[in-house]
# Entry
Amino acid sequence: MEGEGIGEDRTLAEDLSLPVVVEPGVDYAQPPDWNWRDVDSSQPNSAVFHISHSEITRVLVDTLRPEDCSPDANMVIKDEIPIVVLDSLDKYWAGEAKHRLPLNGVRVPIEGDTVAEAKRALADDLGAQFRLLLMLRNSRQHQLAQQLEDNLRMLSELLEPRREQG
# Structure
């Protein structure tokens, strides 16, 4: 083994089992060849990281109902939406059930300190997404990418503008 360069005096930069480049005195967080176009939706984000690295004690199946919407929400739920609520000991995370609302794109659970708070935040998030898609569609002469059109169609089946009471 001594002849192969394997021993206690071998530095990390020479270790063939760890393909790293060690440059003494250089300290930077972003590689020089980093390209943001290489980052895609498969990259985990902080919510996914938090959930996958937390203690999950309970998984609850629940539904979003019209009364879960904020009183000042522009869009309200008109039909029940099945959801999943995760209890990570410090937060509750609510997300829509994919079998009823298989939205395209990256979707992460929405957090709250209580189940009701997480449900309200999720209802508000879905309403905001629906409103954004409506505005985007109107600004683009009713032409959206197919996945966005699909999301708009699904959300329009479950959400509607709040009606003025009076």
User: Anything to note?
Assistant: The mean pLDDT is 78. The CA atoms of residues 89 and 122 lie 19 Å apart.
